[in-house]
Amino acid sequence: MPFISNTDQQRQQMLAQIGLSMEDLFADIPASLRSDLADVPSGLSEQEVRDRLAAIAAKNHVGLTCFLGGGFYDHFIPAAVYAILSRSEFYTAYTPYQPELSQGTLQAMYEYQSMICRLTEMEAANASLYDGGTALYEAMMMALRITGRSKVIIDDSVNPIYRVMISSYTSNLNIELEQTYCLEGLVDRQQVKAKLDRKTAAVILQNPNFFGCLDDLSDIADMAHSVGALLIVSCYPISLGLIKTPGAMGADIATGEGQCLGLPMSFGGPYLGFMATRWQYVRKMPGRIIGRTVDRYGRQAFVMTLQAREQHIRREKATSNICSNEALCALAALVYLSLLGTHGLRQVAQLCADKAGYAFDRLCQIPGVRPHFRTNWFFNEFVLDLPSDAADVIGRLIERGFAAGFPLSRYYQGMERCILIAVTEKRTKQQIGMLAEALESVL
Amino acid sequence: MVIPGLLYTKDHEWVRLDGSIATIGITDHAQKMLGEVTFVELPAVGASFKKGQAISVVESSKAASDVYAPVEGRVIEINDQLLSRPELINQSCYEDGWICKMEVTDPSPGSGLMDARQYAKFLKEQ
């Protein structure tokens, strides 16, 4: 079925009526910006499309044993997550503007927010953002609104993809982005101190950081607060089953990527950005917020709340230009966390940490393979120095069935021999041993 | 309702000038247009504003509106009561529902503002 149902004849009639040609209608668009659609081929049959896409998909390496992280992690997803997610009541639901019709969706979002608060030990969460990177960008914009200042400090141990997103989103805004460089995998307090001043809106950090290193950022929260700046921490939710939370460190805004909570690793998403903050800043928070209230008979009810922050009311002065969210992905996170429970989450986190520790020790026994940093406090991801170019080694290991890790040279100069390796609860002792043998054989 | 002795803006703010101190609020017309006020965002004491800069936000169940500084100056006092009782703006917009007090730096603060008679006429023409 064509998208536009008017026939050529009807179009000619309409144009004749107003005395214009088709060309005239596009006169406002410079010729150089117009695409030439004349060469679009006619469509393929369903079978041809399937064959074509299957042939493209077959070029992927599938079924690799995954030690790849860098922001997205290969965690086990219980079958119940997809079973609940794919119920049409959830799967086809649209924006719950009419609470009387959307109590199920609204309650799920409210419970999701509550879980994000418990996980991060913050006081208020929104109903989700697009992904970890946009969540961090939104947190930065929120800090600028709260403080009325224009300078932001961001450490190079924050996920480089997030940093690229932030600089590209803000390239035409009047924001002074200052970068600090981590030292031995940890935030260099001296550098942060030197750049922090009363013009600073926020310090943006990540824990565990992109190199997997753990750092207690409490002292930096104090440093930031002493000059009226905020601390924004991007975090890895599974790790919060075990390590000190952004809330406990004194962060003002916590964000992160929620893929690890029941969503598969897929190229380009859909992923899940989460955000939580302190009560005092809730009106400056972007995104949809679901609240619990009572109806006229005193019965529990859920509604979208504090909507005056949002675009449909505050127009161009809204807290964000992003007016959608990732409700279905947030639901996956809710179902995942509900299935695990507090103890289950702690157990998953402990397994990740234990197996990563084992893998670190095992891989460091290989001649020529060494820890990159002097101290190695990590959760489930770590950096090793290889005797040769890491990207080459990773390429050779793909042929042997392993996604062995991430070549850090892609984003960091001087780290050509560094590989970032992540270990989740899914990896077995045997798989770790096989990776070690394969790595040793390709070096 | 328009009160004599106050000055008014086209954006429906009022100013009471007392020497170099200006008390600021929104008019009866503004509170009626907004409906039930649910939240008021107040400026920081000590912050300076130019004439026309957004100094506060008044939220109602159907809108969120900026309040613009009707004079240039520095905020010396805010009406804390509005944080817990935003409805004061509906109940008493010219008295208990004032928003903030500013120390005026503008040498002729009244210029460009309307008196009660002019504002009443302005409302009629709307």
Chain-wise SSE layout:
The complex is a heterodimer of chains A (443) and B (126).
Chain A: H1 8-18, H2 22-25, H3 46-57, E1 65-66, H4 79-85, H5 88-91, H6 103-120, E2 124-125, H7 132-147, E3 151-155, H8 160-170, E4 176-180, H9 189-195, E5 200-207, H10 218-226, E6 230-235, H11 246-249, E7 253-257, E8 273-277, E9 289-294, E10 300-305, H12 311-314, H13 327-364, E11 370-371, E12 381-385, H14 390-399, E13 402-403, E14 406-407, E15 418-422, H15 429-442
Parallel strand pairs in A: 1-13, 3-4, 3-5, 5-6, 6-7
Antiparallel strand pairs in A: 2-8, 7-8, 9-10, 11-12, 12-15, 14-15
Helix pairs in contact in A: 4-13, 6-13, 7-8, 13-15
Chain B: E1 7-8, E2 13-18, E3 21-26, H1 28-34, E4 37-41, E5 48-49, E6 54-60, E7 64-68, E8 73-78, H2 81-84, H3 88-91, E9 100-104, H4 116-125
Antiparallel strand pairs in B: 1-2, 2-3, 3-9, 4-6, 5-8, 6-7, 8-9
Q: How would you sum up this structure in a few lines?
A:
The complex is a heterodimer of chains A (443) and B (126). Chain A is of the alpha/beta class. Chain A contains 15 helices and 15 strands.
In the CATH scheme, the class of the largest domain in chain A would be: Alpha Beta
Quaternary state of the chains: heterodimer
Query: What is the N-to-C succession of helices and strands of chain A?
Result: HHHEHHHEHEHEHEHEHEEEEHHEEHEEEH
What is the fold-level CATH name, i.e. the topology of chain B? OB fold (Dihydrolipoamide Acetyltransferase, E2P)
Count of domain modules of chain A? 2
Helix and strand pattern of chain B: EEEHEEEEEHHEH
The poorly predicted ranges of chain B are none
How do the strands line up in the largest sheet of chain B? 1-2-3-9-8-5
Proportion of helical residues of chain A: 25-40%
The major β-sheet of chain B equals: 6 strands, antiparallel
Envelope shape of chain B: globular
User: Mind telling me the C-alpha Rg of chain A?
Assistant: 25 Å
Shape of chain A: globular
- Counting H and I runs of at least 4 residues, what is the number of helices of chain B? 4
Report the average pLDDT across residues of chain A.
94
Task: Enumerate the spans of chain A where pLDDT stays under 50 for 5 or more consecutive residues.
Answer: none
Number of strands of chain B: 9
CATH architecture heading of the largest domain in chain A? 3-Layer(aba) Sandwich
